[in-house]
Design goal:
The complex is a heterodimer of chains A (249) and B (433). Chain A is of the alpha/beta class and 249 residues long. Chain A has nine helices and ten strands. A six-stranded mixed beta sheet of chain A has the order 6-7-8-3-9-10, with helices on both faces. A four-stranded antiparallel beta sheet of chain A has the order 2-1-4-5, covered by helices on one side. Chain B has 433 residues and is an all-alpha fold. Chain B has two domains: 301 residues, ABC transporter involved in vitamin B12 uptake, BtuC (Orthogonal Bundle); 99 residues, no CATH class. Chain B is built from 18 helices and four strands. The two termini of chain B are 33 Å apart. Classes of the chains: A alpha/beta (249), B mainly alpha (433). At the A-B interface, helix 2, helix 3, helix 4 and helix 5 of A face helix 1, helix 9, helix 10 and helix 11 of B.
Chain lengths: 249, 433
């Protein structure tokens, strides 16, 4: 069985500056994989390359064995890969309910329909209600997304990402800027919502990474210097030197 | 329906709400039916017809601006082309005695608007924002200038006229009298408004809002924002074409002014003054601006200047438009604190009106001296005669303007305090303000 995501010799340069230098990475189906590395290592760029936000300069990205690099983001999303954003990226003037419903519409097959009343689509209602309950925002259903608290917006961000039912989920620093208690709740939420799916997560909080991930890859200066189980990564001297050093000490 | 849906989803409208909803449309239909019984003069029937046309046109424009976040400077293209095609269609139908009655002819305008939106929209909707605005302006210039060059189709400066009474009769109506045109416009207005409202309640309509809010994120929930914008553009062109067709039927003529920048500007202004954030906004704007332009032009020769100032005032002080301003008061009404702000409005109204009076007096005096200084200085504006050459008038204008402003500024602060108080009470009662 082919891997959920595979990056083969992926490179990305902006002009003369190489941001991603030859990444090879394979993530098995159902695996929770964390991508860690110091600031500016290229973690978000890697996400952008996988999700179609940018096309790689060379190399290719495969989703379940099919090449997806070069496709626009919406086509990649339709093939079952969904991502969240590091900076909250929701539909600010629309209510929480509307936000989630928009994220459900394509996958329920309604596409660009202009002949169906949106309130008469039971499966859309059910799915939206399910996600709303999952992310614990039922009480905030009718509030415009722009007026939510930061932690609520992050939860909505995750909700929009998983709402379409994609089986490969990419989360970009989902707990950034959260308090300790909020982080714990967010991790529990992520664990629950990504049950049985493939997860690739970028995260700075090491307790989140080591608590959640089956495997970890360490990205430094656009190259993966190590990839393995949490124990292997913890014990890897190269990683300790390059990245974990100051925090593990 | 699952248990989770029952507890988490917004409740579906009950029978009472549904009745209220359909009752509203029925009431609108009855009001349109009875309106000519109350105001039966030819002038008011013409005004109502113009308002109906403007309502369809403004709502079609708001599909772009308010719902999908696209600022167009060339919406009159689809209105105008719809109008021209309909004039040609009426002439052809009349000459060949084709079995098409006039009430169906607006559909030809709509399909024309749709066709040109389909042809011209794909490129311009690639991006929203500045790129879309600039392309819409370019296309508008292109079409407007060809209207003067391609004389056989557009009729040059004079335009093309038609006789609407020569078509197949329905119920013995020949659509000569204005009352019959009024009913034709009213029926199409009601149909178009319902259709455009229904459009906002569809998956496409909701994705338009999502594209307006965040086109980037839309791509990551499976949608191509370009396709969403393009479809919105096509619908907008279709309804603009219907509006243009009704205008052509109403005036029995189509000329290059239909397609021009002024027409594109007027629909932008009506829509914005009414308020782009609410479905009803453009309807309010169309009514308000039609009355304003008809009313002001009787009162002062420089009415466009006032119209421009009103537009600027709305953009600066009430970006939500007239409707947004009214809707701001809804939480206060619910919380029962509306009476806390109304007295402050009344107090503020007096010096503000004085300031505006001083401003109008100064403006009209300046207009007299700059436009026709050789004429008799006894001028008349807004029904009031005054001597523009009298220093007494100048002094009055200055006192009203400056004094009014100084006092008004104080009263506006009071309005602010009263507003804060009323909204904080509303918020305490759990009503979002």
């Amino acid at each position: 069985m082919s891997a959920a995501i595979e990056l083969c010799g992926v490179e990305k340069s902006f002009g003369e500056v190489a941001i991603i230098r030859n990444i090879n990475l394979s993530i098995a189906r159902g695996e929770r994989h964390a991508l860690i590395g110091p600031n500016g290592a290229g973690k978000s760029t890697t996400f952008n390359l996988i999700s179609g936000y940018m096309a790689p300069t060379s190399g290719s990205v495969l989703l379940r064995g099919e090449v997806i690099s070069g496709l626009p983001p919406y086509q990649i999303n339709r093939r079952g890969l969904s991502r969240s954003f590091q900076v909250t990226n929701v539909f600010a003037n629309m209510s929480v309910w509307e936000n989630l419903r928009c994220a459900v519409l394509w996958s329920t097959g309604h596409r660009y329909a202009f002949w169906k009343n949106i309130d008469n689509l039971p499966e859309v209602r059910d799915r939206t209600a399910q996600i709303l309950t999952d992310i614990n925002l039922t009480a905030r259903r009718d509030v415009p997304a722009g007026l939510l608290t930061y932690a609520e917006q992050r939860a909505l961000e995750i909700g929009i990402t998983v709402a379409g039912g994609a089986d490969v989920i990419l989360l970009d620093e989902p707990t950034a800027g959260m308090s300790h208690a909020e982080t714990e709740r967010a991790v529990a939420l992520i664990r629950r919502l990504t049950e049985g799916r493939t997860l690739l997560i970028v995260e700075h909080d090491m307790s989140v990474v080591f608590g959640l991930a089956d495997r970890i890859s360490v990205l430094v200066y656009g190259q993966i210097i190590a990839s393995g189980t949490p124990e292997e990564i913890r014990g890897n001297p190269k990683v300790r030197e390059a990245y974990l050093g100051e925090e593990a000490a | 329906m699952s248990e989770i849906t029952a507890s988490a989803a917004p409740p579906l409208p009950g029978t009472a709400e549904k009745l209220k909803f359909y009752g509203l449309w029925a009431a609108a239909a009855i009001a349109l039916l009875l309106l000519p019984r109350i105001f039966s003069s030819g002038g008011s029937l013409t005004t109502f017809s113009l308002i109906g046309i403007s309502i369809i046109f403004s709502l079609s424009y708001n599909i772009l601006l308010g719902q999908t976040g696209m600022l167009s400077f060339g919406h009159a293209v689809y209105y105008g082309l719809g109008g021209f095609l309909v004039i040609h269609a009426i002439n052809i139908i009349g000459a060949n005695k084709l079995p098409i009655p006039l009430p169906l002819v607006p559909m030809i305008g709509g399909l024309t608007g749709l066709l040109f939106a389909v042809l011209l929209g794909w490129v311009s909707t690639q991006r929203s924002g500045t790129a879309f605005a600039m392309i819409s302006l370019g296309v508008a210039e292109l079409i407007a200038s060809s209207a003067l060059i391609l004389r056989t189709f557009f009729g040059g400066e004079a335009g093309i006229s038609a006789n609407r009474t020569k078509l197949l009769r329905v119920f013995d109506w020949n659509f000569g009298p204005q009352i019959q045109i009024y009913y034709l416009v009213a029926a199409w207005t009601l149909i178009a408004v319902i259709a455009m409202y229904a459009l906002t309640r569809t998956p496409l309509g909701r994705m338009c809002n999502a594209v307006r809010d965040n086109p980037e994120r839309v791509q990551f929930v499976g949608y191509n924002p370009h396709v969403v914008r393009y479809l919105a553009f096509c619908f907008s062109g279709f309804f603009a074409g219907i509006a243009g067709a009704l205008a052509a039927i109403n005036f029995e003529i189509a000329n290059s002014a239909y397609l021009g920048a002024l027409q594109s500007g007027t629909v932008l202004e009506s829509t914005y003054i009414g308020g782009i954030g609410f479905f009803i906004g453009p309807i309010v704007g169309a009514i308000f601006v039609t009355f304003l332009s008809l009313g002001l032009s009787d009162l002062t020769p420089v009415w466009q200047l006032y119209f421009g100032l009103i537009f600027i005032a709305v953009v600066v002080f009430a970006p939500g438009g007239v409707t947004g301003l009214a809707m701001m008061h809804r939480p206060l009404l619910k919380a029962g604190t509306l009476m806390r702000v109304l007295p402050s409005y009344l107090i503020a109204l007096l010096p503000t009106l004085a300031m505006i009076a001083g401003f109008i007096l100064s403006l009209e005096t300046i207009v007299h001296y700059s436009v026709n200084p050789g004429d008799d200085p006894h001028v008349k504006a807004f029904g009031v005669s005054f001597d523009a050459a009298s220093p007494l008038i100048w002094a009055t204008a200055a006192i009203l303007l400056i004094g009014g402003y100084l006092i008004a500024r104080k009263t506006w602060t009071w309005v602010g305090y009263a507003w804060d108080e009323a909204t904080s009470v509303a918020r305490e009662k759990g009503i979002a303000a």
